[in-house]
Amino acid sequence: MTGPMATVETPEQNPLVEGLERLPVHPTTLVIFGATGDLAKRKLLPAIYNLAHEGALPERFNLIGVSRSDIGDDAFREQATQSIEQFSRRSPDELVLRSLLERMRYVPGTFDDDSMYGRLGDVASEFDAEADIAFNRLFYLSTAPGFFPVIVEKLGEHGLDRHEDAEVRVIVEKPFGTDLASALELNRRVLAVFDERQVFRIDHYLGKETVQNMIVLRFANGIFEPLWNRSYVDYVQITAAEDIGIGSRAGYYDKSGALRDLIQNHLLQLLMILTMEPPVSFSADEVRDEKVKILRAIPAPEVEDVLQMAVRGQYGPGTSGAEEVPGYLDEEGVPGDSSTETFAAVRLQVDNWRWAGVPFYLRTGKRLARKTTEIAVTLKPVPHLAFKQSGSLGVQPNQLILAVQPNEGVTLSLVAKIPGARMSVRPVNMEFLYGTSFMSQSPEAYERLILDTMRGDATLFARNDEVEAAWRICDPILQAWSQSDDSLPQYPSGSQGPKEAEGLLLDEHRWRAL
Amino acid sequence: MPEAARWSAEDTTPDAIDSALRRLLEERHAEGGAYAPARVLNLVAVIDRDWRGEIENRLERVGRYHPSRTIICSVERRRTTMDAWATLSADTSGPREIAVGEERVELTIGEAHLSRLETIVDPLLVPDLETLVWAPHGHEEAIDALRGLADVVLIDSVAEPDPVAAVSRALELLRSAYLVDLAWIRSAPWRERVAASFDPPGWRSALAEIAAVSVRHHPDSVASGGLLLGWLSSRLGWDAVGMEREDGGLVARARTRGRRVRLRLEPDSSMPVPGLSGITIEAATGMRLSLDRGPGGLSARRELPGRPPSTWVVLGASRGEAGILGEGIRQALLRDPTYGPALRGACAMLS
Fold first, then answer.
1. How confident is the model at residue B93, as a pLDDT?
2. What residues in A contact B39, CB-CB < 8 Å?
3. Does B3 score more than 70 pLDDT?
4. A119, A329, B40, B340: most buried by Cβ count inside 10 Å?
5. Which of chain A's residues have a Cβ under 8 Å away from the Cβ of B189?
């Protein structure tokens, strides 16, 4: 950066940032690869607009869209306008939008085309020259995963992986690999060009306020810590259920399936945050060190044991929201003989001092009875029950429910006496809802994560060893399923999932009703 | 639209209102729907009866991020009795979602009630929540009566026509409660942008070389300009001194480490809304940075000796006055350690 002729000592800290809610972010040029694609349209461009609207973008900001579509700057701006108007969480302010569009450029080309990278470098350099500033450069890989390695390598070949006097960072969307081998290979190729500190592997679940609040709930409230271990926790369920089908995503989903789509990343992330030890500080590596220890404590199953610890299923026709809906095999774009799972449930264990012996049940599925993402921590029952009188609705072990979506909050189930002469009891809920306690609208996960990347804060991003450790757990399950001759369990759309999932549960454990 | 349960009574008592609120809550629960009362803070607004509609509209525009219990004390001259309305509304927008409720109590009281208003309001507060007191139409007597209950007092320094009286009163209130000043909230984007401009290490050294700062403001927002200059003075260790009239504005020379910084407040009659319209910072090196309200954000211009000027737009939408009030209420839950020193700096300059 070109600064003034400094004749006095530069203060180490900027004295003006004290007390500010939004800290300064270095001027940045954001490059979106796949800028005309679905993710950019639905999430990234609206997120950028909302950051602009709130004045949260860097003081100086540019955006370069890169895609195969052979269009010009104006056509890209028009597409961006439509995306923002359709998908932004707030109606765009015409003047802010127009000013943002003026900072947008578009570079067409295929991702293996050297000349495209030359043009991209030229446009980025034009922005630098125009402002007389070395902008930080942030490359967002919002493309099909097959393009990740080639884009990264081309960036390196064209010298775009480094920038004098400025930071260069790269955001890699999920899926980061399709199995352990491909994840290792992708990490190898990415890290051959970029340093790990430059790489931000995005998992948008970590950008959700409620997920971040789990860290606060655990480590800022003394009430939970004494209970947060094998002595008091009986079992844990983590659920990410959707009531919709695959929609228009057959091309991606049929190659992926439920395990890759959600368990390998989102649900294991939730598991890590739920079970990790308190980090020494909330710096990126301290947090990620603790998270990865959890994955290392989860033994990868032997292929022959998978059928005892994992269940898959595929939705058939059924009723959802009072409407008849087709089964997976009848969805548009799905091969008639597809054996892709749309439901996956696994039972994991975390073999460490705190959690040994506590089963962790993870499940996810499409076309289930309800859309919900939650974590249910079930405590052990009381050792002796003195209230076994008739008239009681029963005593259930206490459960702590951490609701991620659509409700966002925490519920603690307690047992209370029913008013009257008899000592009859029933479970009641103590609720904390986000909407009742805060006055500001939560930002979209992508807004938070893009801003964090511009600041260089990797706390909410997956590190390379984290990704690889997650694949070590999931790989044998995928392998076993691909080798299995057993028929794929079916479940009716709108149901609780395949009955076979009950078989994963130990002791008297039960799936929470969706 | 939220559904509401209502109760009202004439010539009533705080105890009767409290009972009515509990009854409304029980009725809501008895209706069977999942329901949770919002638990953010108590907002006590003391207003002129004649302007009740305007205040209700402003609170309405704050949106769904409302306080858990709003107590509007509507003052009517020569009234000697107290009437009350209580409503408990629930936002039942989602079919399977838990409804979030909002409790509102409206009291119509007389001026004679103001000096002992705490005895009326105290029984109506939700215990253990922050209590925010706001008197947009003056009623300093009511604010003084409620000081013992208020954790936070919401003020707007530009609402008081005399800027010296405004900052002096704010300083006095600051001794007993945390203050959220809407004039300070309006200055947040300016403070953020000035801080960002000097954040890169290459520019940070220029902070110690600032020779002049000129702040442009709505003619009635002298206090806003004073707060921004007070903020710079307190953060950069300038010894602010009393301002004097000069060329239609106010000028002072602050002392810092053997040099002087020229500070100027300039009224901008083209400014359509309360608050700030621009700031120019000049350094002894010849660097000159200007930020001005413009379309789509702030228009920035940086000049360096011997180089062509650089201009750009710092993106950001105006929050509007409803947004400012909403942000003010939200800020009641936070603490900004820089307001007090900025206010003291503003007092030193404007007094």
1. 55
2. 436-437
3. no
4. B40
5. 55
Retrieve residue A462's tokens.
Answer: 């997956």
Query: How far apart are the C-alpha atoms of B220 and B160, rounded to whole Å?
Result: 9
B263: nearest Cα among B233, B304, B303: B233
pLDDT interval class at A486 (50, 70, 90): confident
Distance between CA A331 and CA B3 in Å, rounded?
Answer: 41
Only one residue has tokens 């600032």, namely B210
What type of residue sits at position B306?
Answer: G
Residues of B in contact with A438 (CB under 8 A): 40, 65, 333
Q: Which residue in A17, A52, A433 is closest to B195 by CB distance?
A: A17
| Cα-Cα-Cα-Cα dihedral sign, residues B225, B230, B235, B241 | positive
Could A16 and B310 be called an inter-chain contact, meaning their C-beta atoms sit closer than 8 Å?
Answer: no
Structure tokens at A342: 């749309």
Q: Could you report the per-residue pLDDT of B136-180, keeping only the tens digit for each?
A: 998 999 999 999 999 999 999 998 889 999 999 999 999 888 999
Which has the minimum average pLDDT: A67-76, A277-286, B37-46, B79-88?
B37-46
A:195-254 residues touching chain B, CB 8 A cutoff: none
Whose tokens are 């702590």? That residue is A400
**Other C-beta atoms within 10 Å of B229: how many?**
29
Predicted pLDDT at A382: 84
B346 is written with which tokens? 């503003």
- Tell me what ipTM this predicted complex has: 0.88
Cα dihedral across residues A380, A382, A385, A389: positive or negative: negative
| A374's tokens | 């939650």
Tell whether the model's pLDDT for residue B57 goes beyond 90.
Answer: no
* Half-sphere exposure in the Cβ direction for A3 (13 Å, CA): 18
The Cα A341–Cα A253 span in angstroms is 9
Residues A28 and A51: their CA atoms lie apart, in Å, by 13
**Do A4 and B313 count as a contact with CB atoms less than 8 A apart?**
no
Does position A9 have pLDDT exceeding 60, yes or no?
A: no
Per the CB < 8 Å rule, is A99 touching B315?
yes
What was the pLDDT predicted at B63? 56
Q: How far from B304 is each of B123, B138, B204, B267, CA to CA, in Å?
A: 61, 47, 15, 26
Tokens at residue B211, please?
């020779």
Residue-level length of chain A: 514
Count CB-CB contacts under 10 A for residue B215.
Answer: 28
H helices then E strands: how many in chain A?
15, 17
For A30-57, write each residue's pLDDT tens digit. Answer: 999 999 999 999 999 999 999 999 999 9
